[in-house]
Specification:
alpha+beta, rod-shaped
Length: 185
């Protein structure tokens, strides 16, 4: 029906109007904004968690590779020294032995990294076994000193330079038995 009014020639009755009111639009926009904020927050948190988990996996992988290299040397080692190997002035977090090539090998904790040294020390005889992203908090080696010698290596590692997982640390222990009838010094 067409109605005449002073403001308009044609006016549609109120019951047949279509569309949204301003209040309905404001409510829907607010609801949409809240839902998108929650979804975005969940997405950002999950991405941060995924990055931290990937970094922790890298720390563990690097630590296990360092332990495996030490284990290979220990299996064929002899003349183990757990106090001050070859009088090199270790601070207590070290041990040494003679490897299969007759070289005097020392493993110690230096600047939060596991270091492998050949004695006497030359510029190319020292290298870190753990990467820069690994923070070795403690390192110890304990031996049975009865043949065959069993060396137990204890490590406490954490990721370095990673926010959000600063309180995380992983304790790793392994025991390696020598293949020969070695002795302790």
């Amino acid at each position: 029906m067409i109605f005449f009014s002073p403001n308009s020639i044609f006016q549609i009755p109120n019951s047949s109007r279509s569309g949204f009111t301003l209040v309905e639009l404001l409510v829907s926009f607010t609801l949409f904004t809240v839902i998108m904020s929650i979804v975005t927050s969940i997405f950002i948190t999950s991405r941060r968690t995924e990055r931290n988990i990937a970094a922790l996996i890298l720390v563990n992988d690097n630590t296990y590779m360092a332990i495996e290299q030490m284990a290979r040397d220990i299996r064929d080692g002899r003349n183990f020294d757990f106090t001050d190997p070859f009088s090199e002035g270790c601070s207590g977090n070290c041990f040494g032995f003679t490897n299969r090539n007759g070289e005097k090998v020392i493993y110690d904790l230096s600047n939060n990294s596991i270091r492998r040294r050949i004695s006497p020390v030359t510029p190319n005889s020292t290298r870190n076994l753990t990467a820069d992203n690994v923070n070795v908090q403690s390192f110890s080696a304990i031996s049975t000193c009865i043949s065959p010698i069993k060396v137990t290596i204890n490590l406490k590692v954490s990721p370095q330079g990673l926010s959000g997982v600063a309180n995380f640390s992983n304790n790793i222990q392994t025991t390696v038995s020598t293949r020969n009838f070695a002795k302790c010094i």
